[in-house]
Amino acid sequence: MTVFITGGAGFIGGNFVHYIKRKYPSYRVVCLDCLTYAGNIKTLDPFINDADFHFSNTDITSRADVCRLFEEERPDIIVNFAAESHVDRSIENPEIFLKTNIMGTQVLLDACVKYGIKRYHQVSTDEVYGDLPLERPDLFFTEQTPLHTSSPYSASKAAADLLVQAYVRTYGIPATISRCSNNYGPYHFPEKLIPLMIINALSDKALPVYGEGKNVRDWLYVEDHCSAIDLIIHKGTPGEIYNVGGHNERTNLEVVKTIVGILGKSEDLITFVKDRKGHDLRYAIDPSKIENELGWKPKTVFEDGIKKTISWYLDNKEWWQEIINGEYKNYYEKMYGNR
Ligand code: NAD
Ligand code: TDX
């Protein structure tokens, strides 16, 4: 079995490479990643010299390069993680989000039509459903919830989902889609809430909470997301969409206070800053379909997952210090300097 994992040098894709290599040692894994600011080849260090692992520095928007790789490797399964993934960056500069997330998906889908595959899986997000009101904790996103996007990022992900569905219907490709809530865990790029707060707290820097910190996210430990995708690509029904979530809803302020508490730092570091434009209020997934049809259950509750995540950042300082000492400094200054 040959599996293409696009975006495998990023956070979730990287964790998925580790997961697949551990669980299916006989699979050939080909990682397609063009190493944007968010890609880190070091995440793949343990496999880089394996005969059954191939890293290809490929941009998914490059039709010629993608087709050449399909021709050479003849993949059975494609799991598409490659994307521009940060909402704040999409607000500053939407264009690359449309190119990578929509056009890149189309190139991969065209290659699937041309060469034939057993399964294409699109890693999507709960953000395609928009948001839920804070005062209605009884409401959840189901697979039937209409698409209703808020940011250029979520609009580009929704467009990609629609393309996948169109290719299923028109060309009959065996594709599935998963829509997942916020992930956290090892190898998470420092621009995102949880790693940013851990890293800033470790050096006693201000912890920038947007607005009043009341927005709610439904946190899923990344390994639980990997196990859901594993089930979908092996047992899921082509043409279906599966919501993936951990029932671990927390306000942003609760998350930040938990991190501060575990690290033994002062809550005085918490600084309320200007809100994100169009900031989604609450995401909450109803995962009953994947639980009932495929028997998936998340294993990690937030209290355990956040401790494991903090331990990983403490044990792997060289992984993130190299990032924050590079171009990330300019990004941080631009985003937070005058906020
Ligand atoms: P990430 O930003 O950490 O990683 C993205 C990876 O894609 C990087 O390695 C980058 O180099 C690569 N990439 C970007 N453009 C590319 C291109 N044109 N060609 C090839 N590679 C390219 O992202 P992540 O957080 O790991 O998210 C992975 C996927 O999961 C994305 O599709 C995202 O929309 C989705 N998702 C993420 C979350 C989350 O909480 N992080 C939740 C739900 C869904
Ligand atoms: O400095 C910050 N302060 C802050 O209050 C940052 C970076 C974020 N926040 C808030 C904004 C959100 O309400 O924390 C929450 C989480 O923010 P992000 O980590 O940027 O994630 P989010 O915008 O929720 O999107 C994430 O989950 C869905 C991923 O980045 C997406 O790729 C995924 O689709």
3D structure, described in words:
The protein is of the alpha/beta class and 339 residues long. The protein has one domain: Rossmann fold, CATH 3.40.50. It has 12 helices and 13 strands. The strands form 4 sheets. The chain has a 7-stranded parallel β-sheet with strand order 3-2-1-4-5-6-11, sandwiched between helices. Strands 7-10 form a two-stranded parallel sheet. Strand 5, helix 5 (152-171) and strand 6 form a beta-alpha-beta unit. Helix 1 crosses helix 7 (222-235), helix 2 runs parallel beside helix 4 (95-115) and helix 6 runs parallel beside helix 8 (252-263). The chain is globular and about 55 Å long.
Distance between the termini: 49 Å
- Cα-atom radius of gyration: 19 Å
Classify the beta-strand content into a percent band.
15-25%
Order of helices and strands: EHEEHEHHEHEEHEEEHEEHEHHHH
Look at the structure and name the CATH superfamily: NAD(P)-binding Rossmann-like Domain
| Uncertain ranges | none
The CATH architecture assignment turns out to be 3-Layer(aba) Sandwich
Number of helices: 12
CATH class reads Alpha Beta
Q: State the shape.
A: globular
By secondary-structure content and strand pairing, the structural class works out as alpha/beta
Number of strands: 13
Mean pLDDT: 98
Largest sheet, spatial ordering of strands = 3-2-1-4-5-6-11
For this structure, the CATH topology is Rossmann fold
